[in-house]
Amino acid sequence: MNNGFLKIATAIPRVQVADCSYNTICIKKLIEQASRQNVQIVCFPELSITAYTCADLFQQQLLVEEAEKSLARLVEETKQLNIVSIVGLPVRVGSGLFNCAVVFGSGRIYAVVPKTHLPNYNEFYEKRWFVSAKDAVVDTITLAGQSVPFGIHLLIGSGNFHFSIELCEDLWVTVPPSSLHALMGAQLIFNLSASNEIIAKNDYLISLIAQQSARCIAGYVYAGAGFGESSQDVVFAGKGIVAENGRVLSMADRFSFDEQLLVSEIDVDLLTNERQHNSGFSQDGTAIFSSLPEYRLIECPIPAVDTFALTRTVSPTPFIPSGIELDKRCEEIFSIQIGGLAKRFMHTQSKTAVIGISGGLDSTLALLVTALTFDKLSIPRTNILGITMPGFGTTGRTYNNAIDLMNSLGVTIREIDITAASLQHFNDIGHSEDIHDVTYENTQARERTQILMNIANKEGGLVIGTGDLSELAMGWCTYNGDHMSMYGVNSGVPKTLIRYLVSWVANHKVGGKSADTLRDILDTPVSPELLPTDTNGDIAQKTEDIIGPYELHDFYLYYMVRYGFSPSKIFYLAQHAFAGKYADEVIRKWLKIFIRRFFSQQFKRSCLPDGPKVGSINLSPRGDWRMPSDAVASLWLKDLDEL
Q: What is the largest CA-CA distance in the chain?
């Protein structure tokens, strides 16, 4: 494995029906091409040595014998290549003919897997020629002069990695063999197929493959027959599809007249972590497999490669979907936040919300969610008390944006300057206002929280928290200051996603002054505004200058918490995701800071207010993340230092 990745390929050769020699030459050429690209396992379509559409020619002894001879030549002529190959051909076992996948490499045939479910409807007549794997009576056969394991209950691979195989129709049945293979330990499924084209069938197939890879928490590599198959009654388009845990990674060009080699990588680390994390996955196996044949482990060394280049895309914003999915996701997130907050108001029978409005992103999102919640509950927006609390670092830009936003949304505005109260507190504890340290900053944060809490008590309302998931991960909040609220609506939303949510509202939900204000808020640097402004009255304290870019920290957070990846794996992925934007030393610097802060600030997350889970990651101590507050980061830092 290379940083947990396995390089695979689905190969779609041109074929000539019943011309084993021609087909073998084309297959060999693609194996050689795949080997040059450092592919470790390559898979070909169903019956690729003979072509799938031979029909009654499969009953000709000459064709079956020639297919075996062609396989023998292919095994021999590719034995010097550093690759495992999977091809399809008819194999005679006793008096029956089986539609099989054959795994070979380094001159050795490792396994033969027969097809289980034979389609015999519409344009398919496979039972006319083939026998189902269910009717096999042997578990070892002689093929191309080698004694080879034969059957469907095979886990092929070495060490902690194994793959299994199913053929075409096997995927379409109620309980595909791959479901059983995955439960028994196969992280990767190869499907040799010859599915013809009809209207809308391809969309269904893509959905089927994606869903099966998700259900199995596996990689799924699909190779479908292509150009050259008989078009007497149907057409084959040459489908190549690679999916991983519900996500389609890549697809070949359909209806291409040329041979194709679709190369991608499967993240075995990701699959291993997901299976370990998903307790339901491992629990299912015992009952199901108690009555099934025992699986055999087939030793098949997976080739190591000297040069490994990642070809799959690594998104720099893993929390944010692309394309039309983004709008749907934004609407769904708002619905989750609104649903959570509405339940809290209904339960407490409160009619008043209290929110500190700074003119920044987080308080803006919290205010938008609260306004939409009150609309849904038929509570007047005037019952939302927006409190702006200017202090030593408040700029005219953020102050005006806060006022403009509250006015445009029709909430009740209150302004309470915290300067005098903060100065009095400095005097009370003997702290100089000229020393701009953590005491200076946190005094203001706690003064603001005290005001919000006391107003909520006075008005019989709830303080709506504004802090987000990214700040909680970094501990970028004042303990018993903005750390506290009565319901944290943003606690499950990372900073990078908040930008898109606010932008979505500006583009789709509001107009005029509100939209203009939201866009200016989006352009404002992220800052707690706890230090005095610069000589021009602008923000002097920029969060990302201090703790690093949030887009990096959200990336680190996603892969560390969602998949349990090591810092070295996260660093490797970040190099690809942010290539050309951040140098390696910059990525490493901020990753180290993220790790240190993530561990040292757990005590803040151990006593968080309630808030709704929005995505796949949440840091609530009552939900997804239960970490000791005194855990040390030395192991993670060492892993990064050893790179």
A: 100
**CA 401 – CA 420 distance, rounded (Å):** 23
Q: Answer whether 404's CB lies under 8 Å from 517's CB.
A: yes
Residues in the chain: 643
Kindly give the interhelix angle for 584-600 and 567-577, rounded to the nearest 10 degrees: 140
* Residue 171, both tokens: 């995927």
Q: How far is CA 505 from CA 280, 409, 466, 496, 521, in A?
A: 38, 12, 17, 15, 12
Q: Whole-angstrom Cα distance, residue 403 to residue 354?
A: 15
The pTM assigned to this predicted structure is 0.92
pLDDT tens by residue, 455-490:
999 999 999 999 999 999 999 999 999 999 999 999
Ranges of CATH 3.40.50.620 domains, the chain: 325-544
Mapping DSSP to helix (H, G, I), strand (E, B) and coil, where does residue 588 land? helix
CATH architecture of 5-299: 4-Layer Sandwich (3.60)
CA dist 293 → 83, 139, 180, 296, 308 (Å): 30, 11, 11, 9, 38
Structure tokens at 214: 């998700």
Candidates 3.40.50.620, 3.80.10.10, 1.10.720.60, 3.40.50.720; CATH matching 325-544? 3.40.50.620
- Positions marked catalytic: 46, 115, 168
